Predict the 3D structure of the following.
Amino acid sequence: MLTKLERYVDQLGELHTKLIVLAGPRGSGKTKLLQELGAKLGVQPLNVNLELGRRLSATPHAARGFSAGQLLRDIADKQGKEAVLLLDNIELLFERGLEINPLDLIKRLAHSKRVVAVWPGELRGNRLYYAEMTHPEYRDYDADGVVALEI
């Protein structure tokens, strides 16, 4: 799977989208695969919950949703323009209080750089799911414009 993922990353520059999403349930090996890719590329995966959470904690509650995108972009820009951005632990982006679309936010990051993100949910057909339908943070997105890999 690592070899296949490396090929996809190499081809991202030629594609319209520069985003690869690794989808799968908890314990399926997404983080391990991302770490292995990071070791091969010499890039440290970004723990979004930790880094973005730290910055959001200093942001007034009412401005957090508005600020989340810009803060994540600032964090991503520190990784370097040419480096592949590896995103892990993105659950914070699904927090209802932020009122943001996590997939859209990640897609916008992928306009300017190659991004590989761990999706903490499922890929079914051409749909990405987060949480169960009865969960308050449940989300369902069309995976168009994304290279989605089921792990």
In short: Residues 32 and 70 are 28 Å apart (CA to CA). DSSP finds five helices and eight strands in the chain. The helical segments are 2-11, 30-41, 48-56, 64-77, 102-109. The mean pLDDT is 92.
